[in-house]
Amino acid sequence: MSRLIIVSNRVAPISEGGPAAGGLAVGVYDALKETGGMWFGWSGEVLSSGQPQIQLVEHGPVTFATVGLARRDYDQYYRGFSNATLWPAFHYRADLVHYDRHEFEGYRRVNAWLAGHLVPLLRDDDVIWVHDYHLIPFAEALREAGVKNRIGFFLHIPFPAAQVLLSVPPHRDLVKALCAFDLLGFQTRPDLRAFCDYIVHEAAGQVDDTDGTQPASIRAFGRSLRAAAYPIGVYPDEIAQLAKAGSRGKPVRTMKATLHDRQLIMSVDRLDYSKGLVERFRAFERLLDRSPAFRNRVSFVQIAPPTRADMHAYQDIRLRLEAESGRINGRFAEFDWTPIRYIHRQYERQVLAALFRQSHVGYVTPLRDGMNLVAKEYVSAQDPDDPGVLVLSQFAGAAQELTAALIVNPIDVDGMADALGEALAMPLAERRARYRDMIAQLRDNNVSIWRDNFLRDLNRGAADKPRAVRARAARKAVVA
Ligand code: ADQ
Predict the structure, then answer these.
(1) Under CATH, domain 236-444 is a member of which superfamily?
(2) Ligand 1 environment, Cβ below 6 A
(3) What CATH superfamily classification does 4-233+447-475 receive?
(4) C-alpha span between 354 and 59 (Å, rounded)
(5) Domain positions in the chain
(6) For residue range 111-122, what is the model confidence (pLDDT) as tens digits?
(7) pTM of the predicted structure, to 2 decimals
(8) Which of helix, strand or coil describes residue 341?
(9) Distance (Å) from CA 373 to ligand 1 centroid
């Protein structure tokens, strides 16, 4: 069996039992343990001096290979082009796109440099699976070094409509680089369509699309590849067990005691401007404004740990949210009731799952999101006999599958307030019916199935294509 090589910007921190984070990291780690292989990426360290050295750590059949980044590389590749250019553009925030040609050069340089570290570690029949927007030029860099292995790419965030992508000056270089992969995976059919649209209308390429049962065949920039939608999943039954076990824990008991039988609306997100938090707060305010019966009868808990806190746009969203929650609480709070509890920290998965299970509404309203695993985790954590209601943005990838949620437009404050009111008052029979529909969907496409579908299609391509030239010659070239 071929070894699997996972390449991602960050490598999941590993403890005795496997990766500390859940979901994707566990799903990918399971596959690595089965085939043996390697997880390669940035260690998360930023070095102020000295040459970054690659660190290899073995855990059974899996090798973790990580490398630090020099300060300039971190600034140009990570903070700069990845997170100040690609992230806003791919989330349809052309207004926030910052572009600096030197950062794009840094982005390409770091991709080539990382690829150069991987090449000597590769074997001829390794299958390479690259993850996310930080690493779009990675296959091109490996190909330039002579690597002939199968290389797949999965984009975790949305792929924007062509007209939005055109706002990124080197859009053509990016799409050309994507075409150096053998297989591209997107979260949803609309993302795949947006990519194919660019290929046909902006790159004069050809797309031989199917009914969605097989990957589309694409020819562009003198290259041939395939592309399909592979919606990422969770392990719903494992989350349900975590939620049940966590319900007896102290954090949940404390939360229940302070709620005093009020209904609970719950949101959990990384603190990011793509998550629609300001609009969400305002819709909750609108509900209290329009329907006084809900005052002092419902509490909204927003958990949002800060991320990318050294970037201006993230400092800005934090200030706006602090101002909004303060204003709304100032307006409606009573001696014994704080309408919005806004908490800036990370919690263990078990605590989050248990809180989801206690809450009457999962309020998940990003302005754009590749998938949004919180929506899937919320549904998974529910008590089947007395489930809560998911209020979900139409612009989260998850809305393509979780059609039994209350689907909202996240900029329609009145529409969201209506949905919150409907969710809080929904009869048990309807809640159960909606839950059954969604949990069946989540079981049909859990994270193992997602991973196996992608790897099956990536490997299937291998049988069609002889690999005459092997990686070894290339390895020598790059190491020299
Ligand atoms: P994210 O933008 O990070 O992921 P999401 O899919 O919601 O968004 O995943 C976040 C994960 O972090 C979830 O598993 C969640 O439980 C966890 N998390 C969030 N807040 C937390 C907190 N306070 N404490 C502990 N854990 C917390 C990107 C894309 C998404 C895509 C995923 C996976 O932006 O669209 O769904 O990758 O492909």
Answers:
(1) Glycogen Phosphorylase B; (3.40.50.2000)
(2) 23-24, 156-157, 232, 268-270, 303, 305, 346-347, 352, 369-374, 377
(3) Glycogen Phosphorylase B; (3.40.50.2000)
(4) 30
(5) 4-233+447-475, 236-444
(6) 999 999 999 999
(7) 0.94
(8) strand
(9) 6
